[in-house]
Write a structure and sequence with these properties.
The structure is a homodimer of 205-residue chains.
Chain A lengths: L4 E6 L6 H9 L4 E6 L4 H4 L10 E4 L2 E4 L1 H11 L7 H25 L5 H29 L11 H17 L8 H11 L2 H9 L6
Parallel strand pairs in A: 1-2
Antiparallel strand pairs in A: 1-3, 3-4
């Protein structure tokens, strides 16, 4: 029987990987449908807002990566124990997204070189250190997790996107953040995550 | 007794208004702490990531506007009846945010005039019509609501930000979208929302 879940995304990590981490964590079989760039223009009009990832389940279709992650986190029990804990987890995830968008904005900036260089200075000398210091302090307060003092989907979300963000940054962005390194270790040592990382395609991060 | 909830945001609608709508909808008293631009530099370092809105409740502090909205939506019962419905609502809210960010990117763009003009063309001739057509179709499918066929926090989120988005666009962005106009009517006719709009400061949208 085909798996109930079908994830459609590009053939790399980025916004698809938190979803793959969560499905793997829960031991949920899924079809990992990886589209090639050349096939994207044909597929795009059939998606709700011209974007992937999309997740299909029982004939229904979901879009928006973070919304999908939150749904899966509920299925695999990586959410908070009450509404306020979920608020803390959600705020953490949205903060990581803020940081990701700052990278993306710089990377996809098509401006002249001088402006891009100035943005690079701000990003690397101000924005990243600011976020890293605060996120590292959060990880310290939460004993090696990002929120509520234990493993939640915020940790899987963060760690699953580290390769992608570090690729954009051209360096390990948590290299100077000992508590965030503990978060990473805590996620990567989970047997189901370890198994996924061994199994996933190696060619493209 | 002072209200249990204290919202801190600037003296205009934007990211604060969905929170004010949700609190008002639920009949929850709150301190509407509106900071002036001049006081922001002094306050900024005390916020979790240098941003407002923040919401204080019972000595606890929350940040990230959408996470706060989702928490309040649970308290005032404007969420889905199951996880998949919540996924649909969350995806709708994130899509509205995508659209808002496209506006913000254009508005706060400090590029030379020629580039800005080109971005304006793309935004107004392609991006907005694309989103409006799809959102209007969603509102039609859902009988005058954005998701799951009835009133949810996605509707309050959308309508509370329309003034702000239309101010950025310098036109009523749902002027050509009859079903989105029904969504707006459905929200604005709610007595608690109507009362809030009459009560809120009129000077700044």
């Amino acid at each position: 029987m085909a798996p109930a879940y079908k994830l459609t995304y590009f053939d790399f990590t980025a916004l698809g990987e938190p979803i793959r981490f969560l499905l793997s964590y829960g031991g949920i079989e899924f079809e990992d449908n990886r589209i090639q760039r050349a096939n994207w223009p044909a597929l795009k009009p059939s998606t709700p807002f011209g974007q992937v990832p999309i997740l299909e389940y029982n004939g229904k279709l979901a879009y928006q990566s973070i919304a999908i992650c939150r749904y899966l986190a509920k299925q695999v029990k990586l959410v908070g124990k009450d509404d306020w804990e979920d608020l803390e987890i959600d705020a953490t995830v949205d903060t990581i997204t803020d940081l990701r968008l700052k990278f993306a904005q710089y990377i996809f900036e098509r401006d002249e070189q001088a402006k891009k260089e100035k943005e690079k200075q701000t990003l690397f000398n101000e924005t990243i250190p600011y976020y890293m210091e605060k996120l590292d302090a959060m990880a310290k307060r939460n004993n090696g997790y990002l929120a509520v003092g234990r493993l939640t989907w915020a940790d899987l979300f963060f760690v699953s996107m580290l390769d992608y963000i570090s690729l954009m940054a051209k360096k390990d962005i948590i290299g100077g953040s000992p508590n965030l390194q503990i978060v990473r270790e805590n996620v990567l040592k989970i047997p189901s995550i370890k198994a996924w990382i061994e199994k996933r395609p190696k060619e493209n991060l």
